[in-house]
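Handout, page 2. Input:
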Amino acid sequence: MITCENVSYRYPNGQGIHSVNLTIPDRCVYLLAGMNGSGKSTLLKVLAGGLKEYDGTITMNGEDVRQLRTKQKRLFTISLSPQQPEKQFSLPTVKDELRFTAKVTKKPVDTELESHILNLLQLRSYLDVSPFDLPPVKRKLLSLAIAAVIPAPFIALDEPTAGIDREHKPLVLQFIRFLFIHKGVIVVSHDIDTFLPLSTHIGIMSEGKITVSTDKRTFLNKYLEGHYGAELTRPFIIPRLANLLVNQPAGSVDELAAIINKNNENK
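Output:
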């Protein structure tokens, strides 16, 4: 379990995240939504250790992550697939990128996991190719694969379907289902109606703060009851689903879930 207590990070221009209080359970799919500039990507970078000079406390199962990340323990807490995959690449081949963590930590490669991820994301035929020579869609899939093979109890995916075409989108969803069996998954996405069926918990950010954080059933119940006003939901929440509900009103969470699933099956 990840717990944030009054976590803040401020960029020189004054933007960032402010007094974030958040709990992310183990073995969940936590969907983090919000408008552009709301602080979602910054929060992921703080959680993953990319931005270290933050205020407040982040713990994992009660232990401060600053202590867990010491060189002595060499423990990865959260692996991150960034929104722009090119920022992640630096090595000659796809294989080198996938095995970099094992090389640095001097631990054996988990060949079974690696093989499964390669098959799942259809990357096996690209092992000896430079990451920079991959088609854009494959670069994004490689970024997901690199994060997945890092031995961390949580993985964070920043806009995992950005740049993914219709043909490859089901691979990403299948990939997330696979991850959910093994670790906690944090997904940042504007594509709420795609990821809502997969999620177990929902968080919403606005102006650098968490305004909603709850399990999916509670979120949907409150959504149906009108607890989330138009100022919160209209800019980004479930755009295609909203159109469906005009013609197919849902009276319960189960009915709403059925509409979501039917909508995704027809995409």
